[in-house]
Give the backbone structure.
Amino acid sequence: MKWTLKKFEDLAVDELYALLRLRTEVFVVEQNCVFQDMDNKDQGCYHLMGWKENELVAYTRLVPQGISYPAYPSIGRVVTSPAARGGGIGRNLMKKSIEETRRLFGNGPIKIGAQLYLLAFYSSLGFVQTSTIYMEDGIEHIEMILS
């Protein structure tokens, strides 16, 4: 796996296309969720991409404090390619995302909005649930914090 991390303005057109395509493939098509993926947050974020043989198979958006949450940086748009699942790519993606978020924004807490069905996965990485269940785009979510 080859990892690349870029600010929005440094993304090549092909990289931007690949990450938007992967996000659409999973969030819109696979999860059957009609929502506005392009939410004007991408421009202020870093984009972590995991490439396997020139194909984007893993991606997260690393969000500075003040964009998604007033007091916390965040990791969002966590996605792995359906074709690449099952080999630990999701766990590696999150570990790399946590490492890069802390490198970029400091060692403080990281807050995420997680799909409820992934509670055990994020808990295994040290995240703790901090909210009740809420609906976002028709999917149950919870807020979680990694201290």
Remarks:
- The CA atoms of residues 60 and 77 lie 5 Å apart.
- The helical segments are 13-30, 89-105, 119-124.
